[in-house]
Amino acid sequence: MPRNPKRNVSKPSSEPFPDHSFPTPEQCLSVRDALLDLHGFPDEFAKHRRTADGAPAASEESVLDGLVITLLSQNTTDSNSRKAFESLKSAFPSWNQVLDAETKLVENAIRCGGLAVTKTARLKSILRAVKEKRGEICLEYLRGMSVDEVKAELSQFKGIGPKTVACVLMFYLQQDDFPVDTHVFRITKSIGWVPMIADREKAYLHLNKKIPNDLKFDLNCLLVTHGKICQRCTKKVYNQQTRDFNALCPLTSYSLVNEPKH
After folding, report:
1. Among all residues, which ones are annotated catalytic?
2. CA-CA distance, 216 to 223, in Å (whole number)?
3. How far is CA 22 from the centre of its chain?
4. CA 17 vs CA 29, 83, 197, 213: distances in Å
């Protein structure tokens, strides 16, 4: 017997719940259609949606813009993060100016988005790393990479986790990926698409395996929108209009009909 036998270390599975058969393609289509009938397609995501013939959306925002917008959206509202980005671009029209600026000035520019000190440090670190590696502050080269290659590139930056990477992939690179934010995580658990024991990372891996690529973008945008509006799905109380809307929630009956059998 060898003195130092090699240990059989298996790689983490990209299929965390192989015995969990939900969601099926039919369920994904059913929920997408039900939410689309209820909400229409959300205006806030329309500019990132592929055209009817499948062509990529024509966005004015660069890949780096998208990464920074997503970074600024962490732990704040969409409205505040958008204001923070617009304030940043107004104060510093180029990314080189952001990198060269005094830290306090950048913090002041994005303060309305919250966590200004942390986000500024991460932003400057990203810009510095990109410039050192590429010679310029630009991420457009990611457009020619595969999903796995983009994940490897972006995950090396501090503060850029799986959800942020997935958002950049889906919204700014028009790649087939399915981010799992708080709303998506809560709703997909409640309707049995992921096991209750799942954490966000495993839910992300599971849903990306199960949801058909051609439904990922619409379904994700609609689940996020629905989670913000529906009292049943957010477990929050809003106004009377929201409570009335709750009676229309198509997922109320869906979760009962499609609950996994154990």
Report:
1. 163
2. 10
3. 21
4. 21, 39, 10, 19
Q: Is 237 a residue whose pLDDT tops 50?
A: no
Residue type, 76: T
**CA–CA dist 252, 226 (Å, integer):** 12
Put simply, whether the predicted model's pTM sits higher than 0.70 gets the answer yes
Token pair, residue 238, equals 């809003």
In angstroms, the CA 108 to CA 162 distance is 27
41-79: b (≥16 Cβ within 10 Å) or e: ebeebeebbeeeeeeeeeeeeebbbbbbbbbbbbebeee
52: pLDDT strictly greater than 90 = no
pLDDT tens, residue by residue, 9-22? 334 457 899 999 99
Specify the residue for token string 């198509």.
250
Collect contacts of 251-260 with beta carbons under 8 A, ≥24 apart: 251/31, 251/34, 251/187, 251/190, 251/191, 251/226, 254/30, 254/31, 254/34, 254/191, 255/190, 255/191, 255/192, 258/22, 258/27, 258/191, 258/192, 259/191, 259/192, 260/20, 260/21, 260/22, 260/192
| C-alpha distances out from residue 55 to 45, 50, 88, Å | 16, 6, 31
Each residue of 77-122: pLDDT tens digit?
889 999 999 999 999 999 999 999 999 999 999 999 999 999 999 9
* Burial classification of residue 124, based on how many CB atoms lie within 10 Å of its CB (0-12 exposed, 13-18 middle, 19 or more buried): middle
pLDDT at 233 over 80: no
